Amino acid sequence: MTWILYRGHEILDGEFYCPSYEALQELPVPEKYKTVPEEVRGLGPSYDVGQMWVNFARAIRTGTSVEPDFDHAVRRHRMLDAITRASETGQRQKVAL
User: Fold this and answer.
1) Degrees (nearest 5) of the Cα angle 32, 36, 38?
2) Cα 79–82–83 angle (5° rounding)?
3) pTM for the full model?
4) Domain segments of the chain: what residues?
């Protein structure tokens, strides 16, 4: 049995556990984050790809960065690697983010 502490919650053998938590609930996405036309929403992968292209085009037009970027992905992979190591060793891991 392996316990990992993640953002104040425990993960037991890969399963999220929080004693005060009753049930997971789906949260609605706020309208300000829906950047594709209404007819594309709800189409699964098409929606995700559309969102990505709209954000990419906005970044080009405004000269800003696209989020998440490559550095974000590297940080996420470091965290996932630390979770895997903790699971394999039973030891807490430090993550360089």
Assistant:
1) 95
2) 90
3) 0.46
4) 30-66, 68-97
**Taking Cα atoms as reference points, which of 21, 94, 11 lies closest to residue 1?**
11
Q: What pLDDT, in 10s, does the model give residues 31-62?
A: 888 888 877 777 777 777 888 888 889 899 99
Residue 36 CB neighbour total at 10 angstroms:
18
Residue 1's pLDDT band (boundaries 50, 70, 90)?
very low
Evaluate if residue 88 carries a pLDDT over 70: yes
